[in-house]
Amino acid sequence: MKLDGYTRLAAVVANPIKHSISPFIHNRAFEATATNGAYVAWEIKADDLEVTVANIRRYQMFGINLSMPYKEQVIPYLDELSDEARLIGAVNTVVNENGNLIGYNTDGKGFFKSLPSFTIIGKKMTLLGAGGAAKSILAQAILDGVSQISLFVRSVSMEKTRPYLDKLQEHTSFKVDLYALEDVSELQARIAESDLLVNATSVGMDGQSSPVPESIVLSETLLVADIIYQPFETPFLKWARSQGNPAVNGLGMLLYQAAEAFQLWTGKEMPTEEIWQSLTEKYQ
């Protein structure tokens, strides 16, 4: 990579962020598309978020990505929000359009792009969890024309989840069905009629636990996805594959949300296949 007086900067901003693989992905993409850019990771304190956003204009940067805990906190410092960022209530990509800072959320788009030969239009989805990733998948599914969503959260989180679902319904007229994850017979019934089952919880990152009991039976055409990519195969995905179901981990979501951001910044398509090869070698 050649750095000179014309090099434009992009960055990922979070705390912690030093472990991020976004610099690896974006710098590969800058190089492969002959774009004069460089991508770095900035670990900042919450007090520095406003000035960090102001620096996007000051240094004429492409923009920034944001990870937790700043996806919601950044919103007051932006000029505009895209439809999906407004629905999700969180931003993972800021684009500098000639000094006008626009917030997007590419997580949901990235997730659906990562599913091989699957489209959500008119389909039924069962989603586990209601954190940031789950919200982005929920909102994107609604925008993309999903026909029905069953959302399962732990019973202690149900009251906390309802206001967000009410807001979604107010803006889209789409009603998400909310259930307790502990209700195994309901879980079985919803999964049985779904086309897609998604684990958007962090359960399974330890390589031992699974968000659903192993007694659940999957219909053979059901596509199963986990947003976790470390470990590369979670117990949840292993269980799905043992029943003969196609199963996808979260590495594709990470790559394709980055590809969406890259295109917003540069107008160029990220060479995802080439980068996917390097990523799987690195993380498998």
Furnish the topology, listing elements before pairings.
Blueprint (H helix, E strand, L loop, with lengths): L7 E7 L7 H11 L4 E7 L5 H10 L4 E4 L3 H4 L6 E2 L1 H6 L4 E5 L2 E5 L2 H7 L10 E5 L3 H12 L4 E6 L4 H15 L4 E4 L3 H9 L3 E4 L23 E4 L8 H8 L4 E2 L2 H16 L5 H12 L1
Parallel strand pairs: 1-2, 1-3, 4-6, 7-8, 7-10, 8-9, 10-11, 11-12
Antiparallel strand pairs: 3-5, 5-6
Helix pairs in contact: 1-10, 5-6, 5-10, 10-11
Would you tell me the overall average pLDDT? 96
What is the tally of helical segments?
A: 11
Low-confidence stretches: none
User: What structural class should be given to the helix and strand makeup?
Assistant: alpha/beta
Tell me the total number of β-strands.
12
State the order of secondary-structure elements, H for helix, E for strand.
Answer: EHEHEHEHEEHEHEHEHEEHEHH
Beginning-to-end CA distance, first to last residue: 26 Å
Assess the beta-strand content as a share of residues.
15-25%
Main beta-sheet annotation: 6 strands, mixed
Q: Based on CA inertia axes, which overall geometry fits?
A: globular
- Give Rg in angstroms: 19 Å
Strand order of the largest sheet: 2-1-3-5-6-4
Share in helix: 25-40%
Describe the fold and architecture.
The protein has 284 residues and is of the alpha/beta class. It is 39% helix and 19% strand. The protein is built from 11 helices and 12 strands. It has helices at residues 22-32, 49-58, 70-73, 83-88, 107-113, 132-143, 158-172, 184-192, 235-242, 251-266, 272-283; strands spanning 8-14, 37-43, 63-66, 80-81, 93-97, 100-104, 124-128, 148-153, 177-180, 196-199, 223-226, 247-248. The strands form 2 sheets. A 6-stranded mixed sheet has the order 2-1-3-5-6-4, with helices on both faces. A 6-stranded parallel sheet has the order 9-8-7-10-11-12, sandwiched between helices. Helix 5 packs across helix 6 (132-143). The longest helix has 16 residues, at 251-266.
